[in-house]
Design brief:
By secondary structure, the chain is α+β, with helices and mostly antiparallel strands. The chain has 3 domains: about 150 residues, Immunoglobulin-like (Sandwich); about 170 residues, Bactericidal permeability-increasing protein, domain 1, CATH 3.15.10; about 240 residues, Bactericidal permeability-increasing protein, domain 2, CATH 3.15.20. It is built from 8 helices and 32 strands. Strands 1, 23, 24, 25, 26, 27, 28, 29 and 30 form a 9-stranded antiparallel β-sheet that branches. It has a 7-stranded antiparallel β-sheet with strand order 18-19-20-11-22-32-31. Strand 15 and strand 16 form a beta hairpin.
Length: about 625
């Protein structure tokens, strides 16, 4: 057996935890508790206090004994309802079943409330539930201090079928400073080589004759000054103003005079600047944002084109034709680039956006449905969905859909530059899709632990088990590697919190199976538990404007023991072991909810970013900042 520093540290921590905890957790409340987890069907020490009823309407009595002889076992509780991971739209759920004990049941407590047990062991209790994850905890004991506990999750609320997109999934507000940032980037695409090529692609710019003279004008080159673009929000759209200075187009004018004399002249066609004004009108139809420029006008200040030597009438024809052609090409370029860039700004990252999350391809779909302009900016509303193909071998569970709440959209002010608000309904769709597809199911061996970034103080070998479970000494080789398998029995649900933390994720029936995997031999299951966890999580903005979610505090957990097939394990030791491994393991799960870009104009970088709880019902998360 190895005795390295990390192992000694683990031993010390485990010992300190054991000394600091009441055996069996018999004094824990019906609510979720941090640190010590709960288990089911395990005896608490003789002399544990019998809990007092918390409801004056149900006074439990002791049921008759069911067998004779020494009583060394806890009560046996059999639930008929609810089912693990059950979904309900009601505000209360009936907890029913039977509770029997060799010495007679002295008490049954469901979520802290005493429940009457009939002479035949039957019981029924109505338990209030709230929207989201609810943890139902039953504690049943006899007069000798033997106690059994059962913990199971129930999801309550309204549910949206997974075939429907989440309505009002994202609301984005772009204020005037946001359009200032967008116009600076879009202006760099105007004028330049692209416009020069457009003009020369029209060659000849003019070809005509008058009397005995003819002329053909061909563009040779074109240069322009640095363009400026101004996008001003107004009711119904954007006022577009473009200025393109220092227009200089070099042309060759060639032809014949009096049908006898050939000529060829190099001529400069210039203007001090071109000015374009238009109104950008943005509309949404079938999830597609379309921007068109209307009432477009183009003027060329101080336009000059003098050929000389040809009839004035022909020269005027050529001059007007070339001027109109240059104006048309400027208009065409602006009408191509500006609507495209406005679409990017308005629609943002509408997708579909395909990302790789935990090695799997997932698709985020945002469908624009409403764009409203006013004098301060624009509001964009999108529906949304997350689509994840099922993991091979995973049969998608049935459910009524993802959790939704009834809160309305937040109101955004004219500052700062942008607001991007995420509906908790969309967060719950993400959690639902990750659960249904098996995205959160993981197998963690020693190699995967390194790749996933589990801390170095988390030894993935059987020596760790022997520290917590001395019963395993001689049963397993301490040098054999461990494998952990994680699977989720219910979707992750989310609710907003007042800062700090901002969000709480609820995980129902996260199953953790612990195996010893000796080389060349079949692995052995040592322990399987079901964890009900509340995780304080915080969003942040990473590189390339990617949204991340991380666990930001100690999880609150309750645990049921499902299996200990190799050898019976001590309840308190299981509590301490789960409490030890859960925090680093739970840190991995938010990766299934992360990795999607903030829906902003490409190339724009946010700064002074803040995350806030938002909306009339405080059920939105808003990201706001400057650009």
């Amino acid at each position: 057996m190895r005795h390295h520093l990390a192992s000694l540290t683990v031993v010390a921590l485990a010992g300190a935890t054991i000394l600091g905890c009441g055996s069996g957790g018999g004094g824990s409340s019906g609510g979720m508790s941090t640190a010590a987890a709960t288990t089911s069907a395990t005896p608490s020490p003789t002399g544990s206090a019998t809990p007092s009823p918390t409801s004056s309407t149900a006074t439990p009595g002791t049921t008759p004994p069911v067998a004779s002889g020494p009583d060394t076992s806890p009560s046996v509780v059999t639930l008929t309802s609810p089912q693990r991971g059950e979904h309900t739209t009601q505000t209360a759920i009936m907890v029913t079943g039977t509770a029997v004990d060799q010495s007679g049941v002295s008490y049954l407590v469901v979520n802290g409330a005493a429940v009457l047990v009939g002479a035949n062991g039957a019981f029924a209790a109505a338990v209030p539930v709230v929207s989201g994850l609810n943890v139902i905890e039953l504690r049943c004991g006899d007069a000798l201090g033997h106690e059994a506990r059962t913990v199971l999750p129930v999801l309550a609320g309204a549910f949206l079928p997974e075939t429907s997109n989440v309505s009002d999934a994202v609301a984005v507000r772009l204020n005037r400073p946001a359009f200032d940032a967008i116009e600076r980037l879009a202006a760099t695409q105007l004028g330049g080589v692209n416009l020069a090529q457009m003009i020369m692609a029209q060659n000849p710019l003019f070809s005509g004759n008058y009397l005995l003279a003819d002329v053909t004008v061909t563009a040779q080159s074109a240069t322009f000054g640095a363009p400026t673009l101004d996008l001003t929000p107004v009711a119904g759209g954007l006022r577009v103003h473009v200025e393109l200075p220092n227009i200089d187009v070099r042309v060759r004018a060639a032809g014949r005079l009096v049908s006898l004399v050939n000529y060829s002249l190099n001529v400069a066609v210039t203007a001090d600047k071109a000015t374009l004004d238009a109104v950008a009108v943005v509309s949404v139809a079938n999830g597609v944002v379309t921007t068109t420029l209307q009432n477009t006008t183009v003027t060329l200040d101080n336009f000059r084109f003098d050929i000389g030597g040809i009839p004035t009438f022909l020269e005027n024809l050529a001059r007007n034709a070339v001027k109109n052609l240059i104006q048309d090409q400027i208009k065409k370029q602006v009408e191509t680039i500006v609507p495209r860039e406005v679409n990017k700004a308005i629609a943002g990252a509408t997708g579909p956006i395909v990302q790789t999350v935990l090695g799997r391809q997932v698709t985020l779909v945002l469908v624009p449905k409403l764009v409203l302009f006013d004098a301060d900016g624009a509001l964009v509303i999108t529906d949304g969905d997350l689509r994840v193909p099922p993991l091979a071998g995973v049969t998608p569970p049935t459910s009524p859909g993802s959790l939704i709440t009834a809160g309305g959209r937040p109101s955004h002010g004219p500052t700062p530059s942008f607001h991007a608000s995420l509906n908790d309904d969309m967060l719950n769709r993400v959690g639902h899709a990750a659960w249904k597809s098996g995205l959160m199911n993981m197998k963690i061996d020693q190699t995967a632990a390194v790749g996933l970034g589990l801390p170095a103080w988390f030894p993935m070998d059987a020596f760790l088990l022997q520290i917590f479970f001395p019963q395993l000494v001689g049963q397993v080789n301490p040098a054999d590697p461990l494998e952990l398998e994680l699977s989720t029995g219910a979707p992750a649900t989310f609710r907003t919190l007042a800062a700090p933390g901002l969000l709480e994720a609820g995980l129902g029936d996260l199953t953790i199976a612990v195996y010893v995997a000796p080389a060349g031999r079949p692995r052995q299951l040592v322990l399987k538990v079901g964890v009900q966890a509340l995780l304080p999580v915080s969003p942040s903005l990473g590189a390339n404007n990617v949204l991340k979610v991380d666990v930001s505090g100690r999880p609150t957990i309750k645990t049921d023991v499902f299996e200990t097939p190799l050898v019976a394990l001590n309840e308190l030791a299981i509590e301490n072991f789960v409490d030890f491994i859960a925090p680093p393991v739970l840190q991995l799960l938010p990766r299934a909810w992360s990795g999607f870009p903030l829906p902003l104009y490409p190339g724009v970088s946010p700064r002074n970013v803040q995350f806030t709880r938002d909306g009339p019902a405080n059920d939105w998360v808003t990201i706001k900042g400057d650009l």
